[in-house]
Design goal:
The protein is α/β, with parallel strands linked by helices. The protein has 12 helices and 11 strands. The chain has a single domain, classed as Rossmann fold. Strand 1 and strand 2 form a beta hairpin.
C-alpha cells in the first residue's frame, strides 16, 4: 500500500513540478494543483490528511532522503579538489536554514554560486552540477527551502505557496556570509562577495529569476520585486515563462547577464506548454549578455542533473546531456564571474554547438 502511495505521489510531483504560473481560465489554478497532490495521500477523500496519511507522506520523504546520498567526488572533473560542509543550520532572528556548502580546498578566493533546488528537492540534490562547478573554482551554497522533502513537508498546502520565501532564503544567506566565515575557518577569505551568481532548476529557476530582477505581479496593479543587488549574474535551468506571476514585461527587468537552458522535451504536463514557453524568459529579456541554450531530446531532468535518482518525467539518464548543462553553465560562470574573455567569446561564437555536433543550439543578444 505504501509503495503504491509513493508511486502515485511521484506521478503527482511530475504534474506540479514543471510550472508555478498559468495564464488562461483553462489552465490549472494553484488550489487545483494542491488538490491534485493531496488526493494521492488523502485516501479517505475527506479533504485533509489524517495521522496515517501524514505518516505515509513522511515515509516517502524519509526514503527519498536516504536515496540521494552520493560519493563526495563522483562528479568533480576540474582541477580543484573539493570538500563540503554537508549540514550547517544557519540561525537568525527571522529563520533557520539548513545549508550545504561545497568549496575548493586550495587556498584562494572564489566566486559564489547560490543554487536553488526544484520543487520538493533538497540541498543535497544536483551533485552532478554542484561538484563539477566547484571543482573548477567556485564556492556553492545550497539550502533546503520550505517545500523541501528534507523538512518533512508537513503541510502540502505550503509547498507551492512558499514561492516568495525562496528568494528571501537566498538573500538571507548573503546577509550571513561573514557569519559563515567565522563559523568555518576553511571558508575565511574563500568567498569573493563581489562575484555572486544565482542559479536553479525548475522551481529553483523561478527563485533565481526573482533574485535576478524578474518582476512578479500578484494583482492587477501590484508588483513585487525580489531583486538582490548583490547578484551579478544568473543561470535559469528550465525557467517559467509568462503566467499568473510573470507578464511579458517582467523579464525586461533582468539587467544582469543571464543564461536560460531548456530542452526539446521540456514540456509542462499541466498547461501543455513546451520549451517555447520556457524560452520566454529569454525572448522578453532586455538585450545585453543574455544567452539561450537549447538541448535536443532533453527532458525536464536533462539526463540526470538532479543526481542518480531520477524522478517521473525526468527522462532517461544521459551523461552527455548532463555534460552539456555542466559545460554551458561553466562557460557562463567563467565569463561573467571570473571575467575570462575566451569563455565569453566561446559563448558568443556558439562553440558548444560545434562540440555537440548540433545537439545543442545557442542564441545570444
Amino acid at each position: 500500500m505504501v509503495r503504491r502511495t509513493l508511486s502515485l505521489f511521484c506521478i503527482c510531483l511530475l504534474i506540479i513540478s514543471c510550472t508555478v504560473a498559468q495564464t488562461s481560465k483553462e489552465e490549472v489554478s494553484l488550489q487545483q494543483k494542491i488538490e491534485w497532490l493531496s488526493q494521492f495521500f488523502d485516501k479517505d477523500r475527506d479533504g485533509k490528511l489524517n495521522a496515517a496519511e501524514q505518516a505515509a507522506m513522511k515515509e516517502f520523504a524519509d526514503e527519498y532522503r536516504k536515496k540521494i546520498a552520493e560519493p563526495a567526488d563522483s562528479y568533480a572533473k576540474g582541477p580543484y579538489a573539493i570538500e563540503a560542509i554537508p549540514l550547517y543550520v544557519l540561525k537568525t532572528d527571522s529563520k533557520e536554514l539548513q545549508l550545504r556548502i561545497t568549496y575548493p580546498v586550495a587556498a584562494g578566493t572564489y566566486p559564489l554560486i547560490l543554487f536553488s533546488h526544484g520543487l520538493f528537492g533538497t540541498k543535497d540534490s544536483y551533485s552532478p552540477l554542484i561538484q563539477f562547478w566547484a571543482s573548477y573554482g567556485y564556492v556553492i551554497i545550497q539550502t533546503n527551502h520550505e517545500d523541501s522533502l528534507a523538512l518533512g513537508l508537513q503541510k502540502i498546502e505550503d509547498a507551492l505557496k512558499a514561492w516568495d520565501s525562496r528568494p528571501k532564503d537566498m538573500s538571507l544567506i548573503l546577509d550571513c556570509l561573514d557569519q559563515l566565515e567565522k563559523q568555518f575557518p576553511q571558508l575565511q577569505n574563500k568567498i569573493d562577495k563581489t562575484k555572486i551568481a544565482a542559479a536553479g532548476h525548475s522551481f529553483g529557476a523561478h527563485t533565481s529569476q526573482l533574485l535576478a530582477g524578474t518582476k512578479c505581479y500578484v494583482g492587477w496593479f501590484r508588483s513585487k520585486d525580489f531583486r538582490d543587488q548583490r547578484i551579478t549574474s544568473a543561470l535559469f535551468i528550465s525557467p517559467q515563462g509568462v503566467g499568473v506571476l510573470f507578464k511579458e514585461k517582467s523579464f525586461s527587468f533582468v539587467q544582469i547577464p543571464a543564461m536560460i537552458i531548456t530542452g526539446s522535451q521540456d514540456t509542462s504536463p499541466i498547461n501543455g506548454k513546451g520549451p517555447d514557453w520556457r524560452k520566454e524568459a529569454y525572448t522578453y529579456s532586455s538585450p545585453g549578455d543574455k544567452y539561450f541554450v537549447f538541448i535536443q531530446n532533453a527532458h525536464h531532468g536533462f539526463g540526470g542533473i538532479t543526481g542518480k535518482i531520477p524522478f517521473p518525467g525526468s527522462g532517461a539518464m544521459d551523461p552527455q546531456q548532463v555534460w552539456y548543462v555542466q559545460e554551458a553553465g561553466l562557460q557562463f560562470f567563467d565569463a561573467y564571474l571570473k571575467g575570462i574573455a575566451s569563455k565569453k567569446q566561446s559563448l558568443q561564437q556558439h562553440q558548444l554547438e560545434t562540440i555537440s555536433n548540433g545537439e545543442v543550439k545557442l542564441d545570444n543578444k
